[in-house]
Amino acid sequence: MYALRRPPATPATTRGRAIGYSAAARRALPFFLNTFRASSTSETEETTNVLRMVMFGKPGAGKGTLSARLVKKYEILSLSTGDLLRQHIQERTEVGREAEEIVAQGKLLPDDVMLKIVASKLDHLRNKHWILDGFPRTVGQGELLDAHLKKQGTPLSLVVNLDVPDDVILGRISDRWVHPPSGRVYNLSYNPPKVDGFDDETGEPLIKRPDDNPEIFARRLNQFYASTSPLLEYYSKAAQKPTRLPRLTPHQHPHQLAFPFAHTMLLKTLSGKTSDEIWVQLDALVRSAFPGLKERSPSLETRRRHSLSDAVVAQAGNLAQAPPLQGDS
Ligand code: AMP
User: Fold this and answer.
1) CATH of residue 41
2) Is 13's pLDDT higher than 60?
3) So what's the pLDDT on residue 297?
4) Which residue, of 40, 79, 311, 327, has the greatest Cβ tally within 10 A?
5) Residues near 286 by Cβ (< 8 Å), separated by ≥ 6?
6) Could you tell me which InterPro entries the record lists for this protein (predicted)?
């Protein structure tokens, strides 16, 4: 199942989506200029210390690469909707059959379909730190996600906007090769596989994503400007006003509902031409905003269970009621 992000067997490796983090700290922290934080708070541990993050940016901006670095370093789970859809397509599920043509053409799937497949994963992750990569992609999806999370009392705590120039991205795409089962990404110019055409960790063949050709990619970039970029405005408004979350107790009458906890969401823009440059800023950001985040222990068991979907499987195993991952439609 290749929506799962598995870390490479050797932590020292510097390749793929779970790439190493060798960059020097070249930049100061300009992202603080782009910060919006509502002033108040008497936040609870529930709302403040848990990383519930959207990794936002153009296609090819490095969302997958940077999410994988966070997942490799910290006890965070990630979910890429692009990987999830490619998995559905490969497995010929109902969603996969609907998605195939749309993904191939660089268009977007309907908001309600996307929310359904994402929500079914998120529902298992209330007290975990997580990252969404590639979702939401429209204001409609953003609203649906917010409503869903608010209902659970687990609103977003961080949105990171990756700001990478278009010409840099276009240069990356033509050289991009991927290993679908792990989501590892290689670039022939600056991050080539050890053996041409094969994944470093498994030796399996790499593929070129069919939607990474110049024509379709241009459409995906246009799609980003038309449908996805308005989300930034949506999140910058949300980041400026604290949300009150209901505190529910089992025997409470609806009129007695209390809304005592103010929750704020951070929105940060991180700029750079390479993922290494941005990584330095991103790592500093999550460390300072979420001091409770634990670094991942190198134990095999922990590494095995780092991905969001793995955690779902593990939890389902514990409860002896495995949700049908394949049919998350
Ligand atoms: P990605 O790997 O994130 O670039 O996603 C690959 C393709 O999957 C996109 O070009 C869309 O066709 C589809 N897709 C991924 N995420 C979404 C989403 N949130 N909403 C609609 N379509 C999506």
Assistant:
1) 3.40.50.300
2) no
3) 82
4) 79
5) 51, 70, 74, 158, 293
6) Adenyl_kin_sub, Adenylat/UMP-CMP_kin, Adenylat_kinase_CS, Adenylate_kinase_lid-dom, P-loop_NTPase
